[in-house]
Amino acid sequence: PSKQKAILPTASWLPCLLGILLYLPSNSLCAKPMPSKEDSAAPLKKSVEPFYQLTEQFLDFIQPVDKSIGLLEDGIRVFTNHSVIAEYYSDWQTTTHRHTMSMLGYAILTCLGLLFIIIVPLAGCCVFCCRCCCGKCGGRLHHMERKGARCRRNCYGTSLTVLCTVMLCGVVLAFISNQLFRNAMDPKRPDYVFLQATKSLGLAAAELSAAPDRARNDSGRVRTLTAAVVRPAVAGAARKFRDHLIARSGVRAPLDEAEAANRLLADSGRLADELRRNWPALRDDLDRHLNGSLNDARQLLRGGGVGGCPIGADPNDCQLLRDRLTVMKPGGDFDAAPAQCNSQLSSWLPVGTESGSASRLSRSLSETEASLAGLADAAIGQLDTADGPVKEAIAAVNSTDQLLEPVWKAAEGLAVRVSSVHSDLAAGLVPDGGRTRSLEYLFLQVAPYWHLALVLMASLALTILVLYYLGLAFGCCGEAPYDDARCCNRGAAAYLLMAGSGLAFMLAWLLMLAVMLLFLAGGAVDTELCRFLTGRAGPAGYRALDTVASAYTRRYQPDRMRENGAPFQALLGDCRPVGDVRPGLAGALNLPELVNGTKPDRAFRRLSTRSVQLLNSRRDSLVGGLRLRPNLTELIRQAGAARTVDLSACAGSLTTSGSLTAAASADVIRGDPDGAGIAALHRISAAAVADLAEHQAWSRIVDQLDADLIRTLGRLSDQRRRVQQLSDARTRLIDLVGPDGRGGSRLADRLGVADSSIRRSDALSEAIDAGAGANLTVGLSAGLVDAAAAALSGVADCRKISDALNGAVRAPCQSALRPFNGFWAGLGLFLVCLPTCLVFSLKLVNLYRKSSKYERDFEEPDYMAYQGFCPSDTVPLDGRRKVPRRTGV
């Protein structure tokens, strides 16, 4: 009774749970799609959205984007170039291998599916042959349980329950996906795929068709945009004329050298003034600081310790320091450096050179640069006068609307093509006038059978799960399979599990075959087409589609090639400019090809011709304000003076390393050539530790002397660096200006030649034709492209077009294809878990068919202990011989 009470709660809740789980798919199976204003399936869609995202990630994993792009480009190359087809047929093995490697994920999964189709029926045949012939597989009734059978039943039962629950989730997802797919294909619902696709294409076509008309109605804005092109184009052409003239005359190189010489002269004057200002500071360090430190050491050595030597110090060090201090004094070879350096610099760089001659030369060079920059302003001034060609061209633009006519024609052509595509799709998708030859009609005829086939597939999987769940319920709640047991026993559970396994062995291969076909169809459409259209492949996917569209147009519609731009990247990419693609309708057209491929308008042709003629007639006035001969007198004088300067003696007297060493200290202190006195001072300070006050005094003197030496050596190093920089500047200045001492200058001669060359008539004419004339046409064309882009983007609602086209893409690729792929993904989850379930179910069948409980045999210790107290019979039976007693174990 207690065991029955423990079993009854389990027997009550497990069937209820099973009924709830089985009710969900059956309810979705029986539900019919009903039209409504609000989408009643929206919560259902949201609930399975994560599963659909996982399915898409799985497809992206087995088929990466780069492989799909390679297949797409390879296919369009073969499709548009017939000569490549023969090459493919001649080397079909290499082609097949390349395509197989591109679809490696699909190939591997297909092979695994075929292996499943072959192995599962064979395994089922083996299992049932053994079951029927020898009676071992599946277990036999009335067999005694072994030790641990209950634990194995619980483990196998729990594992099978978990796997069946996972499989049930997959089947439920398959039922839900089938219902969503049916809703998407129901013509009575507002989210009907064919209706949404045709409606979205119609909205996009209507918006594109209205764009040219809106532009013509807004002719004032178009004229303003076009007229605004003229002056920037003229300014750009004038700058090109100036750059071409400067490059041809060769004036830039000598001017750059003159500016470099000017900078050298200014830097040299600054360095010379710094060199002069730092000599007094160096002398002050020597006389006041360094000399004071040496005097403090002399005073301390006279009054300290025994005989003036600190306690603990070596008397020899004290005597050496006393002898050296009598002759040590600040100074060195650099004492003569100020006089030597100042005498050399006085003839080359007198005081004030930085603010004197250098500033005058800078003003002269700035005036020369300003006169060169004024060439472009002079050209613009000649053209943009009251009766000049610029205002004439602007007036001509404002009086006509024909400048952007090629762009409007291209927009009309694009709108017509989109409208024709919409009409063809509408005629092919939706029946018109009672016609039955349409894709929608064909699908409506096949849809009931298609839906029934999908329901049967999911129902088959559900039937197997029902048998498994019933077997688990009977095995958990039923009693042992005795001959007089009730119907709810473990023997019935074994029969139910065997029935489910047998059904799986017989029909799972058929289910796998159907799932494989659905997987290959839906997965290929998603990865090879819809992934690019929905933007899941990123900008690379849009670029691949644009490449395919360009190749197709080049092969089959060469007259439309100029209009072919980047429609997918521009219109499906949320109207955001990517790279060099303009947003909106302007990005869908190849505007540079359209503008450059048409002849310029008469007003622009006249502007270019008249501009060249006018500049040629007034070329002398263009260069009349040029001043290419800056005043280089002071620069030449400074270079000549630098030629006579010799800074080697000044630099040679400043040969210090700038770091505190024995050799460096000897450079600034006379009387201690080997640095032994300074070293003895350091040893005495380190040894004077007996008296704290004395030790602090010696340490203070050593620290102060080291600081004075480092500061003095640093100043000497800075002075030496300035002298070296002055020497380098002198050498470069002589190289730039010229080394002759007769007052001449190679730099002045080169500037004179450039001045003469830039004023020649042939140079001016060539610069006007090649610089202004050619670049004016280019600038006008580029300006027209920008004007057309601004006009088209202003008259076409890019966001509306993008939303409509994305809606046309979402209808088949998301509303229909995602549930379609979700169906095979749900059943695929069922089939992946099925082989493991078959193993667990057969194990449970063997355990459920055991009739007797586990009992210990007669050889166990308890029985043997009992046998010792209760020996066997001593009285032999009648007519029988006494059996001798066994001894030992």
UniProtKB/TrEMBL annotation:
Annotated keywords: Glycoprotein, Membrane, Signal, Transmembrane, Transmembrane helix
Keyword Ion transport appears in the UniProt entry: no
Cellular localization per UniProt: Membrane
GO cellular component, one term: membrane
Transmembrane segments: 106-134, 155-176, 449-471, 492-521, 823-845
Keyword Membrane: yes
Coiled-coil annotated residue ranges, if any: none
Domain of life: Eukaryota
Pfam families: Prominin
Membrane topology listed for this record: Multi-pass membrane protein
Signal peptide region: 1-30
Principal place of residence: membrane
PANTHER family (UniProt xref): PROMININ PROM PROTEIN (PTHR22730), PROMININ-LIKE PROTEIN (PTHR22730:SF1)
Family: Belongs to the prominin family.
Name this polypeptide is given: Uncharacterized protein
Native source species: Macrostomum lignano
